[in-house]
Amino acid sequence: MRKFFPVEELARDERFNQVTMKERMADPRSGLPSAPGERSRSNRLVPSRPDASQAARALMHGIFVGEIQALEGAGRTCHDFRTAGDSARRAQDDAHDGVDTDDAVPFALKLDMARQAWDEARHVEISVKLSDWMGSEIGEFAENTVLFQAACSTDPILRLAGVNRALEGLAIDVFTTMKEFGDLAGDPFLEFCEDWMLADEVTHVKMGSDWLRRVTEHDPERRKKALEFQGVVDKLFSYGGTRSDSQESPIGLARRFRELAGFSDHEVEEIAEVSLAALEERKAAVAAMQSAARDVEQLAGG
Amino acid sequence: MSATGVTVTPQRFQFVHFDAELIQRVAESLVAALGLDRPVVIEVDETTPLARIDVTIDDAVTIRVESGAFEDTRRPRHQSEQATAASLGRVLLRARDRLLGGFGEAPADDRLTLAQTAAWNAYCAGRLARLGVHVAPQRWQYDFRNRHGFHDLADVAFERLWASDGLTWGELDEISRTAQHP
Amino acid sequence: MADPYQPRSPFAPWDRRELPGMFDVEESARRIGNYKWAEIKLFEALGGWVATVPELDVKMRLGTHCYKHAWHSELWHKRLPELREMNPDRLTQPPNDAMVHFVEALTEPEAAEQTIEKLVGVYRVFIPHFVAAYTFHKNNTSQITDAPTIRSLHFVLQDEMDDWRDGEMLIQSLLRTPDDVARASAHQARLEQMMLDAGGIAGPGSIGNPYAAGNGATTH
Ligand SMILES: [Fe+2]
Ligand SMILES: [Fe+2]
Asked: Quick one: closest CA in C to A64, which residue?
């Protein structure tokens, strides 16, 4: 088995259709209600939205495939990085692929990742049941593979920042939104399940926060690099403004739970900023794509 | 356009990989199955992935539909024949309900409450299923529960709407109203 | 009322635990180091395979089982210092090179079409050998001096038995044609041969006398 696994090869049965972030962002259509710089009506996922149940089903399916990718990411971290002190593995790694093998991680970190794999497997189970309850079929919506893609750095510390801080942080935001949705709608299962999953995700982010601090304790450069990488991933995971503090975004930023998970106020502010920037950039990109399309139309028409 | 024909605009799509002919074919077969007596005009807004549908009824039935309503959710920007049939079928059935009578007191579409909309949708989806259009009952039940509550009374009401034919607006509204109070 | 001062046997009549055991402290630590190494290899493999299997039910089981074996390795990791091994890494070793080769062959299958091979390696070869080595250890160590190991072995064996059954059922559900059966048996035979060379999870003597001549000859 290779040491690092490419996102394009994530194994799925025939029900699934995977799309990349690039394909997603190349879509010139926009559901955003306003132009760049403007603020308009709320787009937040709440039951009072006329399309609430369909939007909730789509988000639930997004959670489902996100959990699969989180499971795969946690599993890969167990596999891809040598346990510190594992001399047999070191010899094996050296003999193989020539990939830099200076990537040993503490044994206890790998134990945490294995625990996370179990948690994510449970989250997949929960998501399958919930999706069924909400009337969705497995694979009914396209799977965006950006989570795994962004979260699978070959540097263990960057991976930790990407998976356990950015991805799991996003999970906290999404679950908080879904939990509130279930609560308001009076859905007995949705609120219950999201609450449980949220508890796990806070734990996962905390694992990431703690390990990042410990492993880079004497290496401020590496810590800085990891945090910068996390910033990039956080922006990517804002999905062009799907998650931000703005009411235009379907998913909000769960400040209280992020705090519990070890994000400082400053870090939360930074995420708030990058996600708002992602929202504005997406609006501008859509406006540009649509005006280009109109130009083409006019040329063709006249 | 013939007296009961279907027209689709645009004929060529720029933002999505949709097929105007397919939309027309699906609409024509639904119009025939439902026995609608007037022309149908379908205007697709391909600049948004949302899935709202507006219908106005006068000499023609004019359907303004956002591209998400016809989209294959598995393959973004591609058309799904199933989704096209389910979306069009639902609004055409509603149009026919209004045209055939018994729905005179029904509020205009933009004045319907969310619960009334969900109830009417459930009534349409059940009939569409019997017409052979693929619709997932659980999906509409979930929508109905979100608007009426997650309890047995709502589930019984949903079953009734799903299985019904020939309801009047008064009957439909009554089912919806009683379903909200367990 | 019974007289509380009346002398009673320190071992109740139903408590038939025996003092003698087959392993001294050093041998116990050596074995447990091997167990820990093997459990680590197992959880690494299961974790790595999650992304490579298309079958959703298998994917979820692998993720779940991955954690259980990580937890086993943690139990052994914590037991080692109690057996006078203050540097647990020193004994966290394969029993011999043959075991390293076994793990290499076990983890070779990667393609999405090789779920049968992946599962057969784990659930028809590796885990049955864990069950055997652990059972042998549990039944042969001193029931009194080594009670902490026995307690862990109980927990671990419970997991191994549950997972073995889970994995075997997954395999049976995937074997649909004579060709599938042939593939499964061929892979099992190949790995079993390598395990034979290794002598079991803790090397030769994994389920036999640990002090017999020749045993552990290739120990690191
Ligand atoms: Fe999760
Ligand atoms: Fe998580």
From this structure: C56
